[in-house]
Structure formats: structure tokens, C-alpha cells
Amino acid sequence: MTAQDLADTLKGRLIVSCQAPPGDPMRETGTLVRLALSAVAGGGSAIRANEPEVVAAITEAVDLPVIGLWKDGDTGVYITPTVRHALAIVEAGAAVVAADATDRPRPDGSAFADLVTAVHKAGALVMADVSTLAEGVAAAAQGADFVSTTLSGYVPGTPKQTGPDLDLVTSLSAAISVPVVAEGRINTPEEAAEALARGAHSVVVGTAITAPTALTSRFVAGLARP
């Protein structure tokens, strides 16, 4: 699938992130596959998934593009941090590899551009997960096929907020020609629609759809307020 083909498929559509953190009861391959199948049944247009085993299983189970990544660790650059991780996700069948494209050092000393070159050579596309406008512009210049706002609010120096960074969506959409994907803390259909209105090409929603543990804890916390 070419970048233009996928862009056409995803324009104005929902990507559902089917992931679970370490230790969560949902973190089991068969369970995550069922989440992906539920997302398909609900009208999702693509799935975002973590780790080669899960990516492979979801790719086999659903007839939608899979955006794969590999989280290794939980600090610094840990979303598909090296070329090795990226190529394992391609081998698992992902149409797109999502990877950290922030300006932080990568653990193997490589550059984001090295990962882009390797993934393209292997026949897949790249989604750059960024936290700032400058990082998004740089990622597009280095050949990323999509740029996502995934990491805004999770990298030191970026805005801490409970909702999505819609200002970053707006600025990126005005600054680069590659499709901008809104991701991160999108909690309602109204916020998803606002992201599109701000210029996002498509929208990723994870926790608000596929994370019952986190959703339960929000309700518990709400009930505990005086």
C-alpha cells in the first residue's frame, strides 16, 4: 500500500489503538485481537497495536491496515526506539511503523532518518510520533509518511493537559504537507471531531475505547470527590 493509498483510506476516519500496559488484565494477545475485531465492527478504519506478536495476530485477524509499534522500556525514546525494533514490526505484517521522532537521543545512537530509510526499504510506511511543531517539521523532512501528535504532554517541556493538544494539531497541519494524525488524550467524539476541524487528517483513540481498567479508575476517582 502506498502512502497516498493509505492516506485516502484514513482521511477523516478513526484509528483505534488496541493496547494495554504491563500488568493490565487486558494485556493478552487473544484479548487484544478481540478488541481489534470490536473496533472493526464499530467502524474503525485502522488499528494501532504494540509488540510483534500482537501486531502479527491482529494483522491476521482483521482486514484493516495495522499501525504497529514496539514499546521497549518506559523512559526516554521507547516507542520503536531502533531500526531493529522497526524491522521486527514490518516483519510482523504492519503496513505502518509508528516510532518516536522526538529530538531525544535514540538508545542505539541512530537517527530517526535511519529508521525511515530502513522501513521504506522493507516496504512499509512510517508514522512519526512527535511532541512539538519543530519535531513534526523535522520528521516530515526526514521522510515520515504521517506525523502524529502522540507524545505531546509526555515529553518534558510540552504542555501538560487533560485533553488533546489541538493547538499542535493546528500548527502542524499548517506547516507540513504530510498527513497529520491527532493522538493523545482524545476522550470524546466531540474532541475527535474538533481535531479534524483543526486540520487533522485522521484521529487515533485508545484509552477512551479500549482500556476498561483506566476507564473504571476514572469513575472511581470521580465518585471519591467531595
Automatic annotation (TrEMBL):
Asked if the keyword Isomerase belongs to this entry, the reply reads: yes
Q: Which GO terms describe its molecular function?
A: N-acylglucosamine-6-phosphate 2-epimerase activity
Q: Keywords, A to Z?
A: Carbohydrate metabolism, Isomerase
Q: Quote the EC number.
A: 5.1.3.9
- Superkingdom is Bacteria
Alphabetical list of InterPro entries matching this protein = Aldolase_TIM, NanE, RibuloseP-bd_barrel
Known catalysed reaction(s)? an N-acyl-D-glucosamine 6-phosphate = an N-acyl-D-mannosamine 6-phosphate
Family matches, as CDD domains: NanE
Does the keyword field hold Isomerase? yes
Q: In which pathway does it act?
A: Amino-sugar metabolism; N-acetylneuraminate degradation; D-fructose 6-phosphate from N-acetylneuraminate: step 3/5
Pfam families assigned: NanE (PF04131)
Q: What does this protein do?
A: Converts N-acetylmannosamine-6-phosphate (ManNAc-6-P) to N-acetylglucosamine-6-phosphate (GlcNAc-6-P).
Q: Which family does it belong to?
A: Belongs to the NanE family.
Q: What is this protein called?
A: Putative N-acetylmannosamine-6-phosphate 2-epimerase
Which organism is this protein's natural source? Streptomyces salyersiae
